[in-house]
Amino acid sequence: MTETTRTGGARPPRESRGTYNNQIGIYDALAYMPLDSQPNGYRKETQMRRANSLLNRGDKVFIVERRLFDQDLKRHFVGEVEVCTEIGFRARGYPFFYHPSAQKYVRKAKPRTRLFPFDGNLIINVLPREVDVESVNYLMTEIGTTLTDRKSFELDVSDPDQKAPPAKPGP
Questions:
Q1: Position 28 in a domain
Q2: Burial, 91: exposed, middle or buried (Cβ in 10 Å; 0-12, 13-18, 19+)?
Q3: What is the pLDDT of residue 80?
Q4: Which residues are 106's β-sheet partners?
């Protein structure tokens, strides 16, 4: 049995109707459908997949969840991407939250696997692949707050709302 192309020419039969893309972890059957049977939004879906392929399996990420209200917890996450699709991704790593009475970020003891949607509620920072997620922690000084693995990685995450230390009187 042969298929016809949009212009009417014959095409040999195909063995497979789709492929699994390990890089972004999705099954792409639409790319192998004849053009006349593809859904109307196919080009848009393809563009979304290409855009989301900026985040790949094995990438290290630092995620800041946007606060909707002042009293909401400051929640962060540092982890490694396991699977990525066009609507979100799964990452394994460590959640952090700001403890107001201790005035520092606290890391949860055990790693967790979390699902994150691609929406406007997250700020996603891609970290270098050399970052050791197991040893990442916050270092707070009078200058500001730094996310570091105490090896080769440092990221300034100082909060502009954080009160500056009192100025020292000059001589």
A1: yes
A2: buried
A3: 95
A4: 97
Instruction: Convert the pLDDT of each residue in 114-158 to its tens digit.
Output: 999 988 789 999 999 999 999 999 988 888 888 988 888 989 888
- Digit-coded pLDDT (tens) for 7-41: 555 555 554 444 444 444 444 444 444 444 555 55
Nearest to 22 by CA among 90, 84, 69: 84
Instruction: Check if the beta carbon of residue 75 is closer than 8 Å to that of residue 157.
Output: no
Cα–Cα distance, 169 to 146 (Å, whole number)? 26
Let me know whether 117 and 40 are in one domain: no
> How far is Cα 95 from Cα 138, in angstroms, rounded to an integer?
12
For residues 86 and 50, what is the distance between their CA atoms, to the nearest angstrom? Answer: 9
Say how far apart CA 112 and CA 76 lie, in whole Å. 13
Q: Note whether 42 and 106 are same-domain residues.
A: no
pTM summary value: 0.62
Is 119 part of any domain?
yes
- Tell me whether residue 151 is exposed, middle or buried, using C-beta atoms within 10 angstroms of its C-beta: 0 to 12, 13 to 18, 19 or more: exposed
